[in-house]
Amino acid sequence: MPTLGELERAVMETLWSATGPVTARDVQDALAGRDLATTTVLTVLGRLERKGLVTREREGRAHRYRAVASREDHVAELMRDALSAAPDRGAALARFLGSIPPDERAALRELLD
Q1: CA gap 56, 39 in Å, rounded
Q2: Which end of the chain, N or C, is more open, meaning fewer C-beta atoms within 10 Å of its C-beta?
Q3: Is there a contact between 55 and 49 (Cβ–Cβ < 8 Å)?
Q4: Distance from first CA to last CA of the chain, Å, rounded?
């Protein structure tokens, strides 16, 4: 799973929050507090597309972008990658489970049953 820089994460959050495909201008508007140029947004979207996280579709003269997978799918893949990098998966899982709040442990138990 490719790692994301801070701006890439912000763009992905915008795509995940959108109700459908969005233009670069839509992303730029959503990140208005950052004062980004359209070319910067297009560069980031292009990088995310090359990483396989975003697809684009032509609509008239513009492109519309959308995330390939949901935020939850992305997080699950990151967790699988992190776990697969651990020499002792059982120990890594035990540490993880010991670090989460009791209500989340209970939710995990329910999911496993």
Answers
A1: 16
A2: C
A3: yes
A4: 28
